[in-house]
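Project standup — Tuesday

K.O.: blocked on the structure for the chain from last sprint. Re-posting the sequence here as requested.
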Amino acid sequence: MSIRLEHVDYIYEDNSNQKNYALKDVNLEINPGEFIGIAGHTGSGKSTLIQHFNGLMQPTNGNVYFDGKNIYENDFDLRGLRGKVGICFQYPEHQLFEVTILDDVCFGPMNFGKTREEAEIIAKKALLDVGMSEEMLQKSPFELSGGQKRRVAIAGILAMEPEYFILDEPTAGLDPVGRGQILNLLKRLHETKKMTIIFVSHSMEDVASYVQRMIVMNHGEVLFDGDKREVFSHQKELEEVGLSVPFYRYLAEDLNQRGFTVSKDILTMEEAKEAILKVLRKKR
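H.V.: unblocked you, prediction finished:
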């Protein structure tokens, strides 16, 4: 059940009636089980793009398909699609509103037709999946830390049992501990539930450490789409559009300039550590 965009434009008009492209001729296919990072500078079309994946925004031109069916055909179940393709927007904790954590996470499943009893079973499992203990369930969501609120908000999406989970800047505003918890949670959901994870991020380190495939947006167009290592090999082009490569790639470049021969393909701290240790062993 893939998501496919074919020749998608999204055009908005300003006061001058000039056409402005938020998306321009976008062609993408998102397949089950992928872990994808979407990057791009502010205004590149990232947030507009992800809202086309479940029909929250409709293209000006082009088509969006889910499981081979055009999602804007009259007989397509668009509401059902939004249960299968869940989107968690920036600062989702601002959307928490119920008296207790459990009530908040039950809201989604009940809105999709589950009874209270069914919703509680699903909600408790989702909360357990994000690391919230049983004794926390009757607390007010407003008593929680920022990272805990973010996890409860994510549980609210998970409780709708999506096949695709899309997150817009899921670590925004969190401290390093909270960021690590959220990213490791997404990794675990991908590995254990085979859930397709797509997240938008400004952090090239986060993208390099977690995703497999990387999509880079620039002025509404897809600049790069492929394996993260291949995309990060385009250092000059990424820098020209206001992005960077991960810090450890710059470190590898610096080490090579200083006479230490290490792979220039390094993306993460673990890879950098292994490469440096390998050089040190050779010099003994």
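K.O.: great, moving the ticket to review. The domain at 3-230 is CATH 3.40.50.300 (Rossmann fold). Strands lie at 3-13, 19-30, 35-39, 61-66, 69-70, 85-88, 164-168, 196-200, 213-218, 221-227.
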